[in-house]
Fold:
Amino acid sequence: MRTRRKVEGITLIGFAILLLVAGFFAYMAMRLVPMYVEYFGVLKALDQLRQDPRSANMGLTEVRAELSLKFNTQYVDENSVPPQAISLKKEAGASTVRVNYEKRVPFIYNIDLVGTFDKSVNLSGAGGE
Structure:
């Protein structure tokens, strides 16, 4: 008498579905990672501005110009973060710079991935640490 052995494993259709799902998430990651790398460049530029002792006394146009230069060294696209996305608020001798922007990345056909980024940095204690 022959006994049947149990066969374990994945079928070809199961493998194709698994590959399709993994490919979808890999493609999504390939579209999202550059957006966040650019955001981390914005954070680094803001941190460099915060550490500059001159930044506490800068006006809005000076802050925008300084950040524009720092964005170039951090590979931040000026179309992603336009000068209008940078604002400066001065209250009671304290300066706060805010970068607020939205980034859209085409994903599939007419579907976009949207990232909204908002970061504020206090410049009143600039040059410290």
